[in-house]
């Protein structure tokens, strides 16, 4: 998405350091929480005691540390978060990658939060975050030449892109206010780009497919922390080697989340605070007024004909029904870390339109440019691999996706034939 000359980032009291300087354009941002969700799977409890380390903290078992995290009720905080992702997404023929297929919708000046979700899934990024209870949050994505901010303050949602000087605004409808609810919130994938939110996903359910231990101590953002190590059991087909969560020794808040692939090398996902303050943020942190000359897009009201997403899809009508039909064949096979999502597309291969741009045949043709052909009892298909998530699209229209190795996908496809 092309950038116009960035406007000056306003000094609204949110920044402790200098605002972003002008410089060369960098890639856009989106939190890789969707992949982190697959990585989360489920965990089991294996008691272990914290080893001696630096800092020297009292011993604690894995069960006690998880309980400490669950009991944490920090409602006020602010700080800086660094996100680094290296998912190993394959390149498309002629350049670009799968990440480019999920670019922003709604025009080059769109500041809609939903248009940011798939804009970037690699590299290093800096976020400034602040929260004061459930009704006040702010997340700012810091670029060298610009800033993208999302502000939730009561019934108001604002998003602002200083690079294009464009803003997005939404308010809760009157009926939602009367019921004490809010229809508009920051998208979960953008609100959840913090260590504690990702950790919640990991710890959401518990079973016996995982080993959990306390593996020493560390210092994160100047605070003492216990390191919780989460690993699939040795007989797992998962592509995930381990998940490490640094937990604040004082208040139980996760300060850092690191996901490492089984294949080795550097972390695939690393999200951690570089600065954190658990005091009450300034009230002005959550105030926002569009700068002079900013293009403001108002969110459509519920029930209006134009209530579509920024790609022009009518998710209240036929497009939503079509999406429901496509997902009606979704099943999950396997357990825990070895879970595989299976999707049987309506009509199978017969739904492909020759020369069209949709259906399993079209998708298989696209994947063939950077995937690998595989064969089995199920027939043949194409496997696309990243460092974490692999996908198999069979020629008869079945899709198998999971944070598992290629052989596990082929085995699932053979069992489903």
UniProtKB/TrEMBL annotation:
Quick one: where's region Disordered?
Answer: 1-23, 289-314
- Put simply, this protein is called DUF2092 domain-containing protein
Q: Which InterPro entries match?
A: Sporulation_related
Question: What segments bear the compositional bias annotation Basic and acidic residues?
Answer: 301-314
Q: Where are the transmembrane segments?
A: 29-50
Which UniProt keywords are given for this protein, alphabetically ordered? Membrane, Transmembrane, Transmembrane helix
């Amino acid at each position: 998405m092309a950038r116009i000359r960035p406007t000056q980032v306003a000094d609204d009291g949110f920044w402790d350091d200098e605002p972003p300087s002008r410089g060369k354009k960098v890639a856009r941002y989106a939190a890789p929480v969707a992949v982190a969700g697959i990585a989360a799977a489920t965990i089991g409890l294996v008691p272990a005691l914290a080893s001696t380390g630096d800092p020297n903290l009292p011993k604690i078992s894995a069960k006690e540390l998880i309980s400490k995290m669950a009991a944490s009720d920090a409602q006020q905080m602010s700080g800086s978060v660094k996100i680094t992702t290296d998912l190993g997404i394959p390149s498309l023929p002629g350049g670009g990658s799968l990440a480019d297929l999920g670019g922003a919708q709604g025009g080059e000046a769109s500041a809609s939060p939903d248009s940011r979700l798939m804009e970037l899934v690699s590299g290093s990024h800096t976020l400034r975050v602040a929260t004061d209870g459930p009704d006040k949050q702010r997340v700012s994505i810091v670029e060298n030449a610009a800033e993208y901010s999302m502000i939730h303050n009561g019934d108001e949602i604002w998003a602002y892109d200083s690079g294009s000087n464009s803003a997005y605004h939404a308010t809760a409808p009157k009926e939602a206010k009367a019921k004490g609810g809010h229809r508009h919130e920051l998208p979960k994938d953008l609100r959840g780009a913090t260590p504690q939110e990702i950790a919640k996903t990991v710890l959401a359910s518990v079973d016996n497919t995982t080993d959990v231990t306390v593996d020493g101590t560390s210092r994160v953002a100047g605070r003492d922390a216990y390191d919780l190590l989460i690993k699939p059991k040795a007989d797992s087909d998962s592509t995930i080697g381990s998940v490490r969560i640094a937990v604040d020794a004082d208040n139980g808040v996760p300060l850092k989340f690191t996901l490492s692939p089984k294949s080795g090398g550097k972390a695939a996902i690393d999200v951690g605070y570089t600065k954190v303050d658990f005091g009450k943020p300034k009230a002005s942190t959550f105030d926002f007024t569009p700068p002079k000359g900013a293009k403001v897009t108002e969110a459509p009201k519920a029930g209006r004909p134009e209530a579509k997403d920024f790609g022009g899809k009518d998710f209240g009508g036929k497009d939503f029904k079509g999406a429901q039909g496509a997902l009606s064949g979704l099943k999950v096979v396997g357990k825990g870390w070895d879970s595989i999502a299976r999707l049987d597309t309506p009509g199978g291969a017969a739904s492909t339109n020759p020369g069209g741009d949709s259906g399993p045949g079209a998708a298989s043709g696209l994947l063939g440019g950077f995937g690998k052909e595989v064969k089995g009892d199920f027939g043949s298909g194409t496997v696309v691999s990243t460092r974490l998530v692999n996908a198999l699209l069979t020629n008869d229209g079945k899709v198998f996706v999971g944070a598992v190795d290629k052989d596990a996908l082929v085995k699932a496809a053979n069992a489903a034939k």
